[in-house]
Amino acid sequence: MAWISGLRRWVSVAAAASLAVTAAALFVALSAADGTRADSRLLSQRLVPVAAASARLLGQYTAQQTALRDYVTSGRRADLRPYTQAAGQIPREEAAVAALVRGDPGLPAQLTAAALAHRAWLDRVAGPQLRAAGQGNFAGARALQANILFTRPYTLAVRSSVTALQTRITSLQGTATARLVGGQKRLLAALLAVCVVVVAIAVGGVMVVRRWLLEPFTALREAAESVAAGRFGTRVPAVGPPELAELGRSTERMRTRLVAALADAAQAEVQLRWLFEASPNATLAVAADGSIVMVNEQARRMFGYTAAELAGRPVEVLVPAAARGTHPHKREGYLADPMTRTMGLGQQLSALRKDGQEFPVEVSLSSLPGESGVVAVVLDVSERLAAQAERERFAVRPTGRPASHPGRPRP
Question: What gap in Å lies between CA 365 and CA 315, rounded to an integer?
């Protein structure tokens, strides 16, 4: 079949081309993903934290300068507290920034310049003013503070050095962000290429499937759906390529076996129901959850219910109220070890009729292999117990002493 050979050749060429394009796109995607992850880690783990730390450092420097000015101006010792607090925070902030910029070619030098500018401000500006104020010479301290031509260059040096550090950090953030965006664009382009390849494969596959597979598959599906809907007489066709044809033949064999099995099951159910109804004893079928599934005529007469009244109700409706609390546990215990057994031997069991009358019973339980329910055969032993009591009554003399046996001498 020449057309099949041509189809295989076309599919092989298309598959090879698709694999080549997909491999190239995946290579680009993986490279872009690696770069994106690196830039993302750089931003999240270094640049963003160092920007925040440098901002906190500048805030501490500014807090010291402001607190010194307020203290010298007011002369109140309380105004110097922010200065002292900032002095305790600045070494930690400088250490945090230094740890984050370690390895960068320019940031450590800028951090050092900012720290030196701050030290110079402490030595040349803050130190003299604090010593004068500490000696009670606030007028002299204010005079030093008012000498703007001397103090302002030190103050501006601190601010400008930290600002230069922040500018460098911002520049690095912009570069990393640009690389991150570029990597994301390449990754998106690679993913789009893969999508295009997938779409092309899908379109080509649909074209092939529609011409070679769709019609036979549709016939198989419709036949299977018809069988699943209960129309078991529907034949499953063996059409299409050899694989689909073999699937159709297998499904048809399964359908014929299913029809035969259902017929056998229906016949068995009819026989079971006939035997169930023909049982001379009261017989009940109870599901694992305790609901009554089926009762025969003898059971309906014994308990005074109709089949419709008992169907689906819990079996405890036939048990006296005093035993209902423990009955589910006994049923669960039986289902855990479902062997045929008779209950009521050596103990007193009672059942309950619809009119509320209790009567003594013996119950024989059985379960078929693989079933999740119980078959209970109930025997009313009222007459037997009454007869036994009557025999015992006649076997005892009025004085309560046993009657003498013939031929045995009286005491």
Answer: 13
Instruction: Please report the domains of the chain, with CATH numbers, ordered by start residue.
Output: 2-208 (1.20.120.1730), 222-271 (no CATH), 279-394 (3.30.450.20)
DSSP 5-33: HHHHHHHHHHHHHHHHHHHHHHHHHHHHH
Residue 47: CB atoms within 10 A of its CB come to 24
Q: CA 402 to CA 410: how far, in whole Å?
A: 12
Phi, psi torsion values for 229, nearest 5 degrees: -80, 0
197-254 tens-digit pLDDT: 777 777 766 666 666 667 776 777 777 888 788 787 888 787 767 766 777 788 888 8
> 264 with 284: CB under 8 angstroms?
no
pLDDT at 408: 45
HSE-CB of 349 using CA atoms within 13 angstroms: 19
Q: Could you count the other beta carbons within 10 Å of the beta carbon of residue 31?
A: 14
Angle of CA points 169, 172, 173, to nearest 5°: 85
Query: Which of 48, 120, 51, 56 has its CA nearest to residue 93?
Result: 56
C-alpha span between 142 and 218 (Å, rounded): 98
> Whole-model pTM?
0.42
3 state DSSP class of 92: helix
- Considering only CA atoms, which of 66, 87, 83, 60 is closest in space to residue 145? 66
Q: What are the φ/ψ torsions at residue 298 (nearest 5 degrees)?
A: -65, -40
Q: How many CA atoms lie within 13 A of 346 on its CB side?
A: 1
Using a 10 angstrom Cβ sphere, with 0-12 exposed, 13-18 middle and 19 or more buried, the burial of residue 317 is middle
DSSP-based three-state secondary structure for 396:
strand
85 CB contacts (<8 Å, ≥6 apart)?
Answer: 63
> What is the DSSP secondary structure assignment for residue 235, as one 8-state letter?
P
SS3 295: strand
Residue 360 · residue 386 · CB < 8 Å:
no
- Per-residue pLDDT of 83-95, as tens digits, reads 989 888 999 988 9
CA 126 to chain centre: 62
- Non-local (6+) Cβ contacts of 58 within 8 A are 159, 162, 163, 166
